[in-house]
Amino acid sequence: MVLLFILIFLKLSITFAETQRKNARVDLFDSDDDTSSISSSSIMQSERPGMGEVQVHKDVLLDQSLDALYEKRSSTREQALASIVDAFNSDLQHEFVEKKFATLLHQCLHCTKKGSSKETSLASHVIGLLALTVGLGDQAQEILEESVTPLSQALKSSREALKITSILECLAVITFVGGANPEQTERSMQIIWQMIHPKLGSNVIATKPSPAVITTVVSSWAFLLTTVD
């Protein structure tokens, strides 16, 4: 589960590259056709929306989904987050991320604070995909530093397995991409491990975590351990 975002991202990269190669081959073959074939192809293409129009439509939908994250109704925000996840899963959204990086990150973090389990899960998914999209560098480090405290607080205030596991997986992914030094990785590992071994006061009774939470803690912690020298 903790590798879900990475596997999706790699799959998208491969699919995108293959599509580009196929399009290049089609263009090459079309250039050798006779005039009638070219005319027929032109007519067919004129009846279908161009790639530019499709991309504009996708950009508009993403902008609308981002705006919907400001809505008060949780169900509206959930639908918007689901649309953003679908968009990121279907294509690499570098241009959108370049323009709306900070806004998307902060709205998703806001969703993890007060949202339902489903909303938090979707928002965590988006944050992970956002980190994978920007890749290694300053923006990935910013995602990590901006997210650690809100995600840690959300973990402490929640007892719902779906919310906890989603945040743990998100934290593992953004640390993997954005962690620039061992201290950052160890900090995230400590936050993750405390979900099954919390620091308790004298009058606090520990709550036994669910099997799903234990599994996610162990896999996330072990995953980050592989990055520590």
Q: Would you give an account of this structure?
A:
The protein is mainly alpha-helical and 229 residues long. The chain has one domain (4-16, 61-198, 209-225): Leucine-rich Repeat Variant, CATH 1.25.10. 77% of the residues lie in helices and 0% in strands. The chain contains ten helices and no strands. It has helices spanning 4-30, 35-46, 51-68, 74-90, 94-114, 117-134, 138-156, 161-178, 182-193, 211-225. Helix 3 runs antiparallel to helix 4 and helix 4 (74-90) packs parallel to helix 6 (117-134). The chain is globular, with a radius of gyration of 21 Å. This is BnaA07g08760D protein. InterPro entries: ARM-type_fold (IPR016024), IFRD (IPR039777), Interferon-rel_develop_reg_N (IPR007701). Keywords: Signal. Residues 36-228 form the Interferon-related developmental regulator N-terminal domain. Belongs to the IFRD family.
